[in-house]
């Protein structure tokens, strides 16, 4: 008799949890995890390109040691971070390190404009194309992750899911911070064109008219 009662109680609990969004919470949580894995995958893809990029640039521009060192050090700092996407402080540290690496890469690519032989090197052009493609993939992966986390956080705050979330310990997840959320669908602008011509010098002002003698 007791086993039958327990079985019915289990059936009732399963029905209540299903009706209160338990299954949907699990599905959305898995979607967030999958989105985060894709973000890490694309960032790793970029990190794997950097050693070959630095080596290629170094072959033509050995004197640019500071810029090359900055990129190498920024990549090393990224590799040392053990990020926990569920911890806001850890995610912010990860985002800051990736931002520093992006800045260092941009400085390196600006420097390459001064070396025509490097720009015409086929291996460098291939790496440049791969880097641009990876930046686009990072932007897309980040954008999808941001939207997935927003969907999850919004869902667990709604009734009756909020009750199920509290009972099961489901909490809001931290997210990437962006100054302009509309920009998450756009890749960082990297201009490899020729620099603009210098501004024309301003004409000197006309001489003042002589004062009449008294």
UniProtKB/TrEMBL annotation:
SUPFAM superfamilies recorded: LemA-like
Name listed for the protein in its UniProt record: LemA family protein
Gene3D superfamilies for this protein: LemA-like domain
Assigned keywords, A-Z: Membrane, Transmembrane, Transmembrane helix
Compositional bias ranges of the Pro residues kind: 194-214
Subcellular location: Membrane
Lineage of the organism: Bacteria, Pseudomonadati, Pseudomonadota, Gammaproteobacteria, Lysobacterales
Membrane topology: Single-pass membrane protein
Record-stated family: Belongs to the LemA family.
Region (Disordered): 183-214
InterPro entries in UniProt: LemA-like_dom_sf, MamQ_LemA
One Pfam family it belongs to: LemA
GO cellular component terms, semicolon-separated: membrane
PANTHER family from the UniProt entry: MEMBRANE PROTEIN, PROTEIN LEMA
Domain of life the protein comes from: Bacteria
